[in-house]
Amino acid sequence: MAITKLHDIHTRRRSRNVGLGLALAAFVVLLIGLTVVKVTVLDPSIATQETQY
Amino acid sequence: MTDATIILDDKHEAEFGDYFALLKPRVMSLVVFTAFAGLIVAPGGIHPFLGFFAILCIAIGGGASGALNMWYDSDIDMVMKRTKSRPIPAGKVTREEALGLGLTLSAFSVVMLYLATNWVAAALLAFTIFFYAVVYTMWLKRATPQNIVIGGASGAFPPMIGWAAVTGDITLSSVLMFMLVFMWTPPHFWSLALFMNADYDKAKVPMLTVTHGKRATRNHILVYTVLLAGFAAAMFATPLAGWSYLVVAVVMNALFLRGAVVLWRRDEVVAEADGYKAERAFFKLSLAYTFLHFMALMADKVLFSFGIGGPF
């Protein structure tokens, strides 16, 4: 059965859930960005060395 | 326990902002600013995204140490007026939650900084967190009136970390940036303690004003301000200082020394009569002192890059 009456606790939990969701989304974006930058900025000689393994 | 009791049991149901408050956002702003300055003035360059990422990691690491501080010091925070609205004493977040958040973010920030930059920067960040959470919070703060002096080191590391994120090393320039914040911390906090004495007293924190009195505190402020001016001048021995730094260093150190002498010459009768006016002014000046010194170093770096001026 669906909860039809909102309690204050729901508002506070929503703030937490949204905040955590946004933080995780930001983390994913940052990791993708870090990976892209590391791959493109990496010294070409090191990149060549690493691909030999 | 029924479903209804679970829903209505709203103890410790903190909002996202309460967890964010554990990271001491105001302290974090100083950390971000000085780390950014260290990163900008460092020789060579860093990809803007990596620079941003490094600053973010340093900020999160600083915030994590703030959460660990709030976990350990919740008993003190409950007593002091300035801190009793913090998330733990206010009953919004449990101590265990603060500890978990602090430890998780500490590990996260150090590992991510290592992956984004280098091990020197990551090791410095790890040491900073350890120093603030263990050496300062768990040991010195309750043990010695010199707590502010040695504990201030943790607040002085961010420019060194920013520098190391770019260069991967520790040099005289980065050590002098460390010293600038390190020597600035005692006069900054002791001037605050002069007009917040009752609070530290109540919390039984051995602040110098409580253990040795305000006369000794005024003497200490003067000594550290003189030493600080010496380290600010030593920056001219590095390739970082140019005309902007010269102007700021001369003006701000003259004002800061003058302020310290004014505090030294005053006694409690005079201070209480005017509501600690000079002490409050000195505290405000101390905020501008660090800000302007690091701004000047960054301005010189920009000017040098345009071929304007050069190191002395």
From TrEMBL, chain A:
Keywords, ordered alphabetically: Membrane, Transmembrane, Transmembrane helix
| TM ranges | 20-41
Protein origin, superkingdom? Bacteria
The protein's name:
Cytochrome C oxidase assembly protein
Q: Which organism is it from?
A: Celeribacter halophilus
TrEMBL record, chain B:
Single GO cellular component annotation?
Answer: plasma membrane
Q: Which InterPro entries match?
A: Protohaem_IX_farnesylTrfase, UbiA_prenyltransferase, UbiA_prenylTrfase_CS, UbiA_sf
Catalyzed reactions? heme b + (2E,6E)-farnesyl diphosphate + H2O = Fe(II)-heme o + diphosphate
The EC number(s) this enzyme carries: 2.5.1.141
GO BP annotation list: heme O biosynthetic process
MF GO annotations: protoheme IX farnesyltransferase activity
Pathway-wise, it operates in:
Porphyrin-containing compound metabolism; heme O biosynthesis; heme O from protoheme: step 1/1
Main enzyme class: transferase
Would the keyword Nucleotide-binding turn up in this protein's UniProt record?
no
Its chief place of residence is membrane
Recorded topology in the membrane: Multi-pass membrane protein
Q: Where in the cell is it found?
A: Cell membrane
- Report which superkingdom the organism of origin falls in: Bacteria
What the record says about family reads: Belongs to the UbiA prenyltransferase family. Protoheme IX farnesyltransferase subfamily.
Under the heading HAMAP family, the entry gives: CyoE_CtaB
Question: What's the further remark here?
Answer: Carbon 2 of the heme B porphyrin ring is defined according to the Fischer nomenclature.
Return the protein name. Answer: Protoheme IX farnesyltransferase
